[in-house]
Each structure stands twice: as C-alpha cells, then as structure tokens.
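Hi there,

I know you've been waiting on this one. I reran it after we fixed the sequence typo, so this is the corrected version. Both the input and the resulting structure follow.
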Amino acid sequence: MTEEEAKGWLQTHFDVPRETWEGLEAYVAMLLAEMDQQNLIAESTRTHVWARHIVDSAQLVTMARGAREGQWIDLGSGAGLPGIVIALLTKRPVVMVESRRKRVDFLNGVISRLSLPHASVFAGRVETVPAAAAAVISARAYAPLPKLLSSAVHLSDLNSLWVLPKGRNAHNELEVARTSWQGVFHVERSITDPESAIIVATGVRSARGKVQG
C-alpha cells in the first residue's frame, strides 16, 4: 500500500472531513518531529507513515464498528498508535495506557495541540489501571497474547471487544492463549500487510472457570 493508496483508503472508509485530515496531518508531523527526541516508530517506516501506522491503526476502527457504546482503552500506546488515530476518527472516549514518561508527555502534548477532549492518558502500567468494563480494548505491539489478556482482563467484561494486531505470530499466540483463556476468537488479515493478522475477540475469560473483569 502506497502513501496515496493509504489516504484513499481512509477517505473511502471514513469520509474524512477537512478538520480531521488536518488533525491527522498535524499528528504525522508531530510524530516525525519527535523522532529526533525519541524512537517512536521504526526508522524504516518514516517514509511510509500513512500506510504502516495511520491506516494500520484506522483499520481497527472498522473492526470495532459492532461494539457497544463506551470507552476504548488502548494498551501500551507508545506513540499514540492506535490511540490518537482512534480519537481523531471517532468520538469514543479513548484512554491510552503508557508507562514511559517521555511518551506520556508526547501523548499529552498531542491531545492538547489537536484539541481531543475525549482522549486521555493513564501514566502507568496496564495492571495498575482501575478496573473497568471497556467497550473496546486494543493493543499494538504490547505483549504476547497470554500475558496481554492476563494483565488487562480486569478492564473488560464478557461484552468487551478486543482488537489486537499481532503481526505474523497471530495464529501461534492464539493457540498458546487457548490453553488458559476462553472466548470467541477469530483472526482478520491486516489490510496493510497480507502476512500480518489481527486477533478479534469477545467473551474473554479465564479457562479456569472464573469470569474475570
């Protein structure tokens, strides 16, 4: 997917208004400028930000359109991918969980500059976030699936929708997770990389029989 194809995909799937385009463009500029201060994205993706990061994040919104109303919690948000993109493309309350101080400061700066009052940052580890019943939970490059579910299940209930990009290891991670976790899981192919996949799940609970979250 080229950068122009990425922008075309966004327009087709979201009918992006001018102010949202301006927000996305400003975010990309901030992301690239901050790369001089901290390693937010892989250097090799600098010239493919729209395809490798913006659309890669935005596709999660299309997979969550059937989710109930309510909060979207993004785990290990880092540079704001997908959290900031979600906040720009939707009106859902978005909570980005990030423990690294420099990245927390960057995310708060983006929220302030882009005027995203429905977005916020929790500065700490996922395990320390107060229990919640999020409508949607996402995590991009956060942790292997079993560890991810264990650390974040207290933020969910059985109706929460999980959308979890897992790269090329999706099927392997899901196979391992199914030994200790139950739920309705399926794998979607990423539109930005045909060899990468996204795990989508509902009804996530411990296989030990105790409903968590």
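Quick highlight: The first strand starts at residue 72 and ends at 75.

Best,
R. S.
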